[in-house]
Structures are given as structure tokens and as C-alpha cells.
């Protein structure tokens, strides 16, 4: 019996597989397609996703050879500027999804993950000990847990009978990756026109992502779009097609927004687009899914190893469902702010003024990049539930930073006062939590005596606090040995 079977070999499924294997879990990925798709829906990687990759020692692989945009946006309004003091990655990385999948597949291979392409899940049944999985044209499988990372039309979600409520599409958008003979002097994605929106963005040298949006018209997403149709739509909206040619991919989509009402049903979980879909405003979809995977991975590994209770597994839904709901909400708002018309023009002018305020800029940047995600964690300390600052540290092994201490995928108990009581208090969790005495010069950690950091980089406990360390360790890492 396999520990965990993952349905879907896209970025979410691959990231989850890497997390599980890093924790010593036997994992099998089943991908319906016979090979990886060379085209790229997603084009951007936000700061929090880069931080997550940094926590596993992978960020440099993704950064190499790809452009960094120093700003992001909200509904195409004036650029939102990242706070360089808040993250080591104050930019959006322009990396095609196909490159992301390739790099994650390479990492999965290094860790020994088995990926079976051309294998489609067709049925499932679960009992108290595991999940029986039927696959098209193959022998049944059995796993202790199953995770559906199989996209917006998730077979796993349908087989579970999980509701997927939300709102239908109200627009038709098209994208194409093309070469331009006459590119605009200042490419922008997207520019508003009376007939909709159109824009281009150079994401690699000589390669552009072109996009159009027509409001209040909904095309059948299952009907293939031709390049000629795309060019005609672009010209109709923008007045030119910039000499576009040699399209390597053309697709259409809408702004339907739906979210699974449950991310967990017994031993089966949903992650990524199987759990939520929304308009791609702000480039948040892939990032949301990868962070789902990192939240779930260490918890599922703890369950496989026998030191996670039901509460820890339930916390995946408790923590990630509100984050997904907030993305649906902000993409709805961005679509509303992008529509043509005088009323929306006035609203955009007012919103653009508000964005000039530093606090508003910071709030919106944190929202779109997921840097401001905070989970409901016991304890009144300001750090609890938030992402741990990637502080520079001095340890017995030399200079390092917080993200490097998380490369193992284990929890970290950071001792900032060399308190001998911490060692005895944490002894029962050796092997699950690394105790690291350290010194720092980071103002964000001033007055902090110790910090317990989860494998996903969020703070589970910080001292001084009235919550005891053994209570926090038991909550997040199971009973002491």
C-alpha cells in the first residue's frame, strides 16, 4: 500500500509530492496526460511562493534566467510597490508555468518520486484504513491517503461528491503566446479600451503574452479558439495587433469563481484548482495552489508517521479555505474595477488616489502576494500565525538565515536567549523539531525569547507568551516520544 497517491502532476501535485518525499513518505503521482504540457497558463510567481521555495533551498533554480518585475498591480491600476524590508523577494518573477513544472519535476525525481503519466483516476472508495483507487485501464491501487490536485474539473472532487459553489463566468478572455513585429513602446497587461481590455507583456526575450477581455459575453470554454480569431479580437479592441505571429499557444477562459465547500473528506483531500477557481487577476492561482500543497504536505506526512491527530489534518481546511475565499473575493473586485464605463472610470480614479497612500499600497501588495496570510494560532504574541521573518542569524555552525534552517522540512525551535529549559522542554520532539540556539540583529525579533516555526514557515508559538511550549509542540507536532 502506498502512503499517499496524488491525482494530478501539475505544479501543485508536484510540489506536494516533493514535500512528502522530503519527509520520508512513499508517494505516487498519477497524471492523466501522457506528458507534461509545454504551454503555460500561469506566468508569474509571487514573493510568498518564492519564500516557500527558498525554505527548501530551491529558489535559485527558479530565479535563474527569468525576469523580475519590481511591482505588481491591482486591477491594472498604478503599480503596487513591494516593501523590500518585508521580504528577500520584493518582486514578481516572470516564469512560465511550463518552466515551473519542469523544475518541480526535476526536484521530484531527485527525491525519488514516481510519476505515472497517462494514468487517470476513475473511481475511489475509502474505509478506516485507506483509499481504494481505480484507474483507467490499470490495476486498482490502495493508499493510506489520496489528494486531488487534478484541476478545475477534478475527478476526485466529483467522486467525493463535494459541492463546488460559486458564480458563473460573465466575460470571455483569450490569451496567446506570440512574437510581435511591432511591439508597443511600453507593454502593459492590461490596457482598458471602450470595447474591453487588451495588452501584451514580454516575459522572455522576444516572446510576448497577449491577452484580451470582452465583458458581458460568455463563450463556450470547450470550443477551441483559433489564432485568427484571437488576432481579430485583439485588433477590434486595441486597434492594432502589433504584428503578432507564430503563436505557440492560444486559449480562452472566463471569470467563473468557485470553491469546494470541503477540502478534506476522511482520507481524501483537495488542493489547487481542484479546491478553487477564479479569474487570474494579479496572477494568484498557481501561487495559491503551491501554498496549499506546502500547508498540507507536512501535516499529511505527520499523519503517515503516526504523530498527527485529526485536528492537525482538519487544520488544512481551517487554514486554507479562508485564504482561498479571500482570493476569490479580491479577483471579483479586480474584475469589477476593470470593466469599461464612466461609473467604473470614476471608481478607478478614486482607487488610484487611495493606492498612493503607503498603508493601502502595503495592504494590497500583501493581499495579492500572500505575504500577509496569517493563520488562527493559539497565543497572543504578535508573531503567532504569521510567516516567520527570514532573519539573518548567527549559530554555532556559522552565519545563516531562517529559511535555510527549514531546508530539511522539519519544524524549528529557535532559541534566541540560550535558555537551557528549552532543550529539556523540547527533548521529546527530537527528529520532528530542530532546536537551534542563535543570535540575531533583526528588529522584527526584538524582545522575542524563542520561536517555534512550522515546516511551512509559519510561527506556531513565540515567547514570551502564556501558552506553554509543550502545549504548542503537542498541537503541531504530536505527542512527545
Describe the structure.
By secondary structure, the chain is of the alpha+beta class. The chain folds into three domains: 2-166 and 258-369, 3-Layer(bba) Sandwich (FAD/NAD(P)-binding domain); 169-255, 2-Layer Sandwich (Alpha-Beta Plaits); 392-477, Glutaredoxin (3-Layer(aba) Sandwich). Helices cover 32% and strands 27% of the residues. It is built from 13 helices and 28 strands. Strands 1, 2, 8, 9, 10, 11, 19 and 20 form an eight-stranded mixed sheet that branches. Strands 14-15-16-13-17 form a five-stranded antiparallel sheet, covered by helices on one side. A hairpin with a 2-residue loop joins strand 14 and strand 15 (196-204). The radius of gyration is 23 Å and the shape is globular. The model has no long low-confidence stretch (mean pLDDT 94). This is FAD-dependent monooxygenase. Pfam families: FAD_binding_3, Rng_hyd_C.
Give the class from helix and strand content and strand pairing: alpha+beta
- Unreliable stretches, pLDDT < 50, 5 or more residues? none
The whole-angstrom Rg is: 23 Å
Largest sheet: 8 strands, mixed
Known CATH architecture of the largest domain: 3-Layer(bba) Sandwich
Shape descriptor: globular
According to CATH, the fold-level topology of the largest domain is FAD/NAD(P)-binding domain
**Tally of helical runs:** 13
- Terminal Cα span: 26 Å
CATH H-level superfamily of the largest domain: FAD/NAD(P)-binding domain
Q: Quick check: average pLDDT? A: 94
CATH class group of the largest domain: Alpha Beta
Q: What's the count of strands? A: 28
When the domains are counted, the total is 3
Percent of residues in beta strands: 25-35%
Amino acid at each position: 500500500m502506498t502512503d499517499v497517491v496524488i491525482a494530478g502532476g501539475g505544479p501543485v501535485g508536484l510540489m506536494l509530492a516533493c514535500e512528502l518525499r522530503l519527509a520520508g513518505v512513499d508517494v505516487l503521482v498519477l497524471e492523466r496526460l501522457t506528458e507534461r504540457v509545454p504551454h503555460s497558463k500561469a506566468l508569474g510567481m509571487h514573493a510568498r511562493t518564492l519564500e516557500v521555495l527558498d525554505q527548501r533551498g530551491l529558489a535559485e533554480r527558479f530565479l535563474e534566467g527569468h525576469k523580475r518585475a519590481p511591482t505588481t498591480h491591482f486591477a491594472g491600476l498604478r503599480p503596487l510597490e513591494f516593501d523590500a524590508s518585508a521580504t528577500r523577494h520584493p518582486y514578481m518573477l516572470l516564469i512560465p508555468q511550463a518552466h515551473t513544472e519542469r523544475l518541480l519535476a526535476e526536484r521530484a525525481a531527485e527525491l525519488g518520486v514516481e510519476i505515472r503519466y497517462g494514468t487517470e483516476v476513475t473511481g475511489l472508495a475509502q474505509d478506516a484504513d485507506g483509499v481504494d483507487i481505480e484507474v483507467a485501464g490499470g490495476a486498482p491501487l490502495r493508499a493510506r491517503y489520496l489528494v486531488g490536485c487534478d484541476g478545475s474539473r477534478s475527478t476526485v472532487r466529483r467522486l467525493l461528491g463535494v459541492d463546488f459553489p460559486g458564480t458563473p463566468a460573465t466575460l470571455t478572455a483569450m490569451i496567446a503566446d506570440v512574437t510581435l513585429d511591432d511591439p508597443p513602446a511600453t507593454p502593459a497587461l492590461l490596457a482598458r479600451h471602450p470595447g474591453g481590455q487588451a495588452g501584451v507583456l514580454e516575459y522572455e526575450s522576444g516572446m510576448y503574452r497577449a491577452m484580451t477581455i470582452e465583458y458581458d459575453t460568455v463563450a463556450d470554454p470547450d470550443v477551441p479558439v483559433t489564432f485568427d480569431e484571437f488576432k481579430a479580437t485583439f485588433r477590434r479592441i486595441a486597434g492594432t495587433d502589433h504584428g503578432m505571429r507564430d503563436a505557440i499557444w492560444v486559449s480562452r477562459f472566463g471569470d467563473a469563481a468557485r470553491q469546494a465547500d470541503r477540502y478534506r473528506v476522511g482520507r481524501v483531500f483537495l488542493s489547487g484548482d481542484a479546491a478553487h477557481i477564479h479569474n487570474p487577476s494579479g496572477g494568484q492561482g498557481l501561487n495559491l495552489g503551491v501554498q496549499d500543497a506546502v500547508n498540507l504536505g507536512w501535516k499529511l506526512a505527520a499523519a503517515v508517521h503516526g504523530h498527527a491527530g485529526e485536528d492537525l489534518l482538519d487544520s488544512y481546511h481551517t487554514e486554507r479555505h479562508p485564504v482561498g475565499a479571500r482570493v476569490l473575493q479580491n479577483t471579483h473586485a479586480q474584475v469589477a474595477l476593470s470593466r469599461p464605463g464612466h461609473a467604473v472610470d470614476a471608481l478607478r480614479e478614486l482607487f488610484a488616489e487611495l493606492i498612493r497612500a503607503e498603508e493601502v499600497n502595503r495592504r494590497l501588495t500583501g493581499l495579492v502576494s500572500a505575504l500577509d496570510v496569517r493563520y488562527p494560532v493559539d497565543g497572543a504574541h504578535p508573531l503567532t500565525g504569521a510567516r516567520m521573518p527570514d532573519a539573518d542569524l548567527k549559530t554555532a555552525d556559522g552565519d545563516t538565515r531562517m529559511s535555510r534552517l527549514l531546508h530539511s522540512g522539519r519544524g524549528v525551535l529557535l532559541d534566541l536567549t540560550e535558555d537551557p529549559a528549552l532543550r529539556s522542554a523540547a527533548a521529546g520532539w527530537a527528529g520532528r523539531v530542530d532546536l537551534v540556539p542563535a543570535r540575531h540583529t533583526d528588529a522584527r525579533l526584538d524582545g522575542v525569547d524563542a520561536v517555534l516555526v512550522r515546516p511551512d514557515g509559519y510561527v506556531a508559538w513565540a515567547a514570551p507568551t502564556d501558552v506553554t511550549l509543550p502545549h504548542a509542540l503537542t498541537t503541531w507536532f504530536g505527542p512527545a516520544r
